[in-house]
Structures are given as structure tokens and as C-alpha cells.
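[agent] plan:
  1. take the single chain provided in the ticket
  2. run structure prediction with default settings
  3. attach C-alpha cells to the ticket
  4. add a short note for the reviewer (M.T.)
[agent] executing step 1
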Amino acid sequence: MNFQQLRSVREAVRQGFNLTLVAEAQHTSQPGVSRQIRELEDELGIEIFVRAGKRLTGLTGPGQTVLPIVERLLHEADNLKRAGDDFAAQNRGTLTIAATHSQARYALPPAVRDFSAAHPDVTLHLHQGSPRQVAQLLLSGEADLGVATEALADYPQLLALPCYQWTHTVIVPPDHVLAKETAAGQPLTLARLSAFPLITYESGYTGRSHIDQAFQRQGLSFELVLSAMDADVIKTYVELGMGVGIIAAIAYDDERDSRLAAIDARHLFASNMTRLALRRGSFLRGYVYDFIQSFVPPLTRERVDRALASAPGDDFDI
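[agent] step 2 finished; step 3 output follows
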């Protein structure tokens, strides 16, 4: 048994059982991949994959049992390499962060700037995606840490640490009737907001569920004319007069967004929690702890280690 055999099995599942794609991902030949898988199956005395001729079509029952073990072995092999790298070159390496657009654009820049200044020999890679894509990058080992508001706490294999709470803001052109009403002291209500076409985040992004729930609780419907993954797109179409926008408060800046007016909406929608996630069982190099504390100062190395040692489902409060 060797790691190349294990990697071939894992990659076959990741690539939807397409051996051509597995061979490309591992920079080898398709017959070589098939041989690696067959040799492992022969050694274990089981068939891991269901076959139709020479094609793999799924996992057998034994294969479904074996796959998590294969994943753990490869994960621990990665940990072993990271541990060696940490001692051999403590201040050199790479840090891969997966984040949603809102976090990458508005929340992470100060931490990235400060970390890069303190660790000039660490190369940062920033991947953007949906909350579920962020989670998958962590689970596959392609990212060291992830930052998002939605989804991360739904995976027991991940440790999702609370970072900060935030609220939504309503944005309109400065001459919009809602801006005039609030300037005159008239509070914004959901009923009043529902009278206008709305532009906000897609489902599953940036606290969208709290927006929907707020209207549902009051038995109100609303016209959604456009949804987007990030606040910059929402702002663009609000400026064009297509509708009233609802965005994360952190995404609005008085100077940068001078062609828009912001209306505080914290009384309309529940607050949201952004989380920083790590894969449980991962070995973290020293500079990963440094980045985490740069982003969330209360999350010291000691507190992160204590949280990593906790069982899934345990509460953790910074």
C-alpha cells in the first residue's frame, strides 16, 4: 500500500469516477491510475469501485467504508509534511484563504495587509467563492482557512469560530423618497420597504436568509428585481435606479459611495455572524495562528487550539 494508490482512490471520487480527469489531475496515465486502484483493491481483498466494463460508476459498500479512512490517512500525511515544514522553515511557506466576495473585499484587507508586512516570506493565496465552495475548499485540503457568514457552521468536519457580528443597511440614491422620509425622522419599516422593488444578495449569501425571514414573519412579500453575490454589483444597479438595495453595513462607505445614501436597517433584520473555519484535525503552521489573530484579535493560539480539541457541536465564544 502506498500514498499514490490512496490519492488515486480519492481523486477518482473527486473527479466523478472519470479516470481521464484523474490521470490529468495526477499528471500520469489512465492505465497507471487503473493499476494503482486495482493493486490497492487486491491488497485489501475488496472492490472499492463499482464498474461497468472498464469504467468506474460509483463506490461499492466496502468502498464507502474505506473512503473516509483514505481521506484521514492522506490528511494526516499532509499534516506530517506541514509539521516538518514548520520546523524546517518557520517563516516561509504559503497560506491559502477561501472567502466569499464580501469578506475578501471588505473584512479581510486590513488583516491581509498587516500579516503580509509581518510575514514577507509567506505567499498568500486568496480564493473567492460561495459559502459552500469555501467549505468544500477546506474539506478537500485546498484551503487552510475559510471566512464566510453562511454555511460554515453546518459541517461537523469544520471548526467554525465566531469572528464578528454585523447588520444590513438599505441603500438608495440620495434623492430617493426613502432617503427623504428617514431624513425627516420617519422610521423605515418592512411594510414601507416592501412597496419598492428590491436588489439584494442571492440565497445563501451574506445573511440573505435573515432578510427573507424578516418579511415572512410579518406576512409580507417583496419584489426582487435582481440578486447578486456581492455588494458592489448591488450598488451599481441601485445607482441606475432599478431598485432599493439591501447590503451588509460593512460594504457601505460614505466617501466611496457618495452617489448613494444609506439607511440603518438593524431594527428590521436579525444580526449576522461571520465565522472563520478550519478543518478539524489539521496541523496549523505558526503563521496561520498569526493570521487568525490578526483578523480576530481575541482568537489567540491557545484559544484556537482549545477549540480544535473540542467536540463538534460544542459552543465556543470569543
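[agent] step 4 note for reviewer: The two ends are 43 Å apart (CA to CA).
[agent] ticket updated
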